[in-house]
Amino acid sequence: MLGVAELDGLPDEEAPEVAFAGRSNVGKSSLLNALVNQTGLARASNTPGRTRELNYFDLEGRLRLVDLPGYGYARASRKDSAQWMALTKAFMQGRSVLRRVFVLVDSRHGLKDSDIEIMELLDEAAVIYQVVLTKSDKVKPTALAHLMKVTSDKIARRPAAHPFIRATSAEKGDGIDLLRADINALI
Ligand code: GDP
């Protein structure tokens, strides 16, 4: 694992990359661990808003997963939020090997303003993004189906939004294979 605090410390653009974004505590570390089938690789923590850097995970040189810092942390200062935006924006706009950004959204909460903000940024940068619902085991199947529909309607007219929304549970393993297939199709 490689932590990159400054953008000029990013690795060479020699492998395709997919990035993961989401509000703090959305379950990003847990999902990354489930995806690469390895616990302890992505740091899972109960301290939201702690990670302030980009973490890289190299999958045998074929692909790199990029863990973007969590956003929307309630106690983050205005300055921290601005810094986050600047870092993320620079990354999105300047990274030619970036194939897709997965925007993680908690199945219990749905899209929040901060998620929309990141989507606006991605629309502007013309980077394709795909919504991934997390912690699907926390809601009933009917509620999940409803959220998928509502979310799908909300992103329908966004220029860079991928139409397929995935529902996942890192805890139960639901939807992980499908998401992995989406990622593999990008290599
Ligand atoms: P991050 O801050 O986005 O990296 O989120 P974490 O992966 O650290 O998860 C935040 C909290 O949500 C932790 O308490 C996890 O155990 C819990 N969590 C993450 N994924 C799931 C899931 O699929 N199901 C359930 N029930 N809890 C989850």
UniProtKB/TrEMBL annotation:
Region forming the signal peptide: none
CDD domains listed in its UniProt record: YihA_EngB
Names of required cofactors: Mg(2+)
Keywords: Cell cycle, Cell division, GTP-binding, Magnesium, Metal-binding, Nucleotide-binding, Septation
Segments forming domain EngB-type G: 14-187
Pfam families, sorted: MMR_HSR1 (PF01926)
Coiled-coil region list: none
Job description of the protein: Necessary for normal cell division and for the maintenance of normal septation.
PANTHER family: ENGB-TYPE G DOMAIN-CONTAINING PROTEIN (PTHR11649:SF13), MSS1/TRME-RELATED GTP-BINDING PROTEIN (PTHR11649)
Family: Belongs to the TRAFAC class TrmE-Era-EngA-EngB-Septin-like GTPase superfamily. EngB GTPase family.
Protein name: Probable GTP-binding protein EngB
Biological source species: Hyphococcus lacteus
Lineage: Bacteria, Pseudomonadati, Pseudomonadota, Alphaproteobacteria, Parvularculales
Gene behind the chain: yihA
